[in-house]
Amino acid sequence: MKKHFITFLLLVGMTASLTAQQKYQPTEANLKARSEFQDNKFGIFLHWGLYAMLATGEWTMTNNNLNYKEYAKLAGGFYPSKFDADKWVAAIKASGAKYICFTTRHHEGFSMFDTKYSDYNIVKATPFKRDVVKELANACAKHGIKLHFYYSHIDWYREDAPQGRTGRRTGRPNPKGDWKSYYQFMNNQLTELLTNYGPIGAIWFDGWWDQDINPDFDWELPEQYALIHRLQPACLVGNNHHQTPFAGEDIQIFERDLPGENTAGLSGQSVSHLPLETCETMNGMWGYKITDQNYKSTKTLIHYLVKAAGKDANLLMNIGPQPDGELPEVAVQRLKEVGEWMSKYGETIYGTRGGLVAPHDWGVTTQKGNKLYVHILNLQDKALFLPIVDKKVKKAVVFADKTPVRFTKNKEGIVLELAKVPTDVDYVVELTID
C-alpha cells in the first residue's frame, strides 16, 4: 500500500511539473536569444560587493558569523577609487568573452546599484555614491558586450528575508522573516534592473538551495520568471539551484563542473535540452580573497573553455575584483592570454555546437555546418581514431596552417595520421564532412 501511494505521489508530481513546463512558451525573441547565447560560448563572471573589503571571500559574513548591523558599517568606508567600467570591459573583451555577468546583489544583501527600495546600496550608503551597474551597462553597450545580472534569492542582512541554512548567526531577530514583504522587494528590484539598465541578456539566480532544510518552502518562481519575461521577453532566466531546470527557465547552469560531471558535488542534475552554462573560478574563490593567488594556468583555462564547448556548453569564468575597484593583475594577464588564443582559434569555438564525436580523454569535438573541429588536448600518440561512420570525411587539415592531415578509413571510423605527437595547448584538426 505504501509503495503504491509513493508511486501515486511521484506520478502526481511529474504531471504537475509537466503541466507547468507546458504553460511556459518562450517568445521568438527569447528563442533567438537562446541561440545567440549558445553562439557566444564564453562569458566573464564578476563577484564584487562589500565582502571585497574584508578580502576573505564572498561568504565571509556567514562563515564568520558577522553581525548584520556591524557588517553594514563596511559601506561607510567603501570607496573603490580605481573603478573604471570602461577599463574592465575592455580587458574582458580582449579575452574573447562575449558577455559579463555581474553580482547586482549577493547573499550579503548589499545592492551594487541605485535602488529606491533599500538605502543599503552603493549610491546611498557609501561615500563612492556611483551606480557601478549603470556605468558597467554603458561600457558594455559601448564595447558590444552583453550584460547579465546575478541576483541572489538569499539576504543575510534584511530582517524580512526568511532564514535558511546559511546566515543564521548574523544577528537578525526573526528567523521566519516576512516572505510577502521580501518577495515584493525582490520583484521591485528586478523590475528596476530590467527597466533602468537597457537590454539585459540574462538574470542569473542563486540561493534556492538555502531552503533545502525547509522542503515545503515556496520561492514562487513561476510568477517571478513571468515578471522577467514580461519586462524583457528576450532576457534569459537561469537558476543555480543544482536541479533539473524548472518551468520558465531558459538556460541550465552547472557550478564548478562540466555538464554530466559532478566532481565538486554541486552538479549531479541531469542534463537538459536547454542551452548550458558552466561557471568556474579563475583562482579558488568567487569574491576577492587576498590569500588566494592560486590562479589556474592559461592552458587550464583554455582547456576548460574548449571542453565546455565540446559538451555544448558555455563557460562563465569568474574574477573577483579588488576592493579598490581594479581587476587583479594576474586575472587581467590571463584574460589577455586567453584572448590571444581565441583570436586564432575562436572560429572553432564561437557559433559551434558539441561535435558528433563524444568527448574522450584525448579531447573533444565542436561542429559548425560541415566543419568538425577535433580539439586534441591530451594525446601521447601520432594517430587518433575517430568513430565517424554515418558521415563522409572529405578533407582533413591542421586548423592553424591548413596543412593536410592524412587519414585512413575503415568500417569503424577513421584514423588521423598526425605528423607529430601534439604538444600545442590545443591541437585542432579541421574535418570537412558530408
TrEMBL record:
Q: Which GO terms describe its molecular function?
A: alpha-L-fucosidase activity
Can you cite a GO biological process for this protein? fucose metabolic process
Where in the chain is the site May be important for catalysis? C279
What UniProt keywords are attached to this protein's entry? Glycosidase, Hydrolase, Signal
Q: E.C. number, please?
A: 3.2.1.51
Would you tell me the Gene Ontology cellular component terms?
Answer: lysosome
What residue stretches are annotated with the Glycoside hydrolase family 29 N-terminal domain?
Answer: 16-347
The broad enzyme category this protein falls into is hydrolase
Q: Which residues does UniProt assign to the signal peptide? A: 1-20
Its function? Answer: Alpha-L-fucosidase is responsible for hydrolyzing the alpha-1,6-linked fucose joined to the reducing-end N-acetylglucosamine of the carbohydrate moieties of glycoproteins.
Give the protein family: Belongs to the glycosyl hydrolase 29 family.
Q: What is this protein called?
A: alpha-L-fucosidase
Organism listed in the record: Bacteroides fragilis
Q: What is the lineage of its organism?
A: Bacteria, Pseudomonadati, Bacteroidota, Bacteroidia, Bacteroidales
